[in-house]
Amino acid sequence: MSLDGTDAETHEWMRGVDGCFDDAIRGIKNLVHAGLKPQIIMSLVQRNKGQIKAMVRLAESLGCGSVKFNLVQPTARGEKMHKAGEVLNIRELVSLGKMVENKLSSSTKLMLFYDHPSAFKPLGKMYSESGNGCSTCSVLQIIGVLANGFYALCGIGESVPELVFCDASKVSLEEAWKSNPVLLEIRRGLPARLEGVCKDCIMRPLCLGSCIAQNYYRTRQLWSSYWYCEEAYMQGLFPDSRLVPQAS
User: According to a count of CB atoms within 10 Å of the terminal CB, is the N or C end of the chain lower?
Assistant: First the structure.
């Protein structure tokens, strides 16, 4: 369940729909009443960054199972928000990630997920019995279908026509998967052809560039590095321990 604030003013500013906060809370309660453990997904921006801890407490009180903190990608509306300074800068994002992973997660029984790349995740959070794993795009195993019935890399096809492949009513899934040149190039090229900081990151076999669709949207190159990692690297915030040692 998407919930971008612990109050109606904040959430409805993000979603642009009057009354959607109360509707979301009612929906969460209905799911819990049905015996489910919903996950709250909060997209982080300047306006709600002070509500992170409060969101965890709200999720606890509602009976949720987990909370996921999403980064606003510089795509479509998100691109405009980045340019307007409405999102968090890279230093803030890295700092909040450390707080969520190392401090806030120890204050709750809920599973907390912070959507930063693998290079920034503590190994204990990925591989220990109590860890929350390592989420990554399944670009090598999936194909998207848009609302108009066309196969696409994913929902990015709504904004990037060249990542829309063919009409699902005319081409079988098997044929599209096995013959589309973009899909073939991605499967043959990942992770070896990744560029920028991703090329030197030891997590690249797991991370796969984090989001090929976003990387392409930003540069029109499939193998570009992920914006978060690139910005962190340029500002000296990328973990040295996750880089391939350079020969002296």
Answer: C
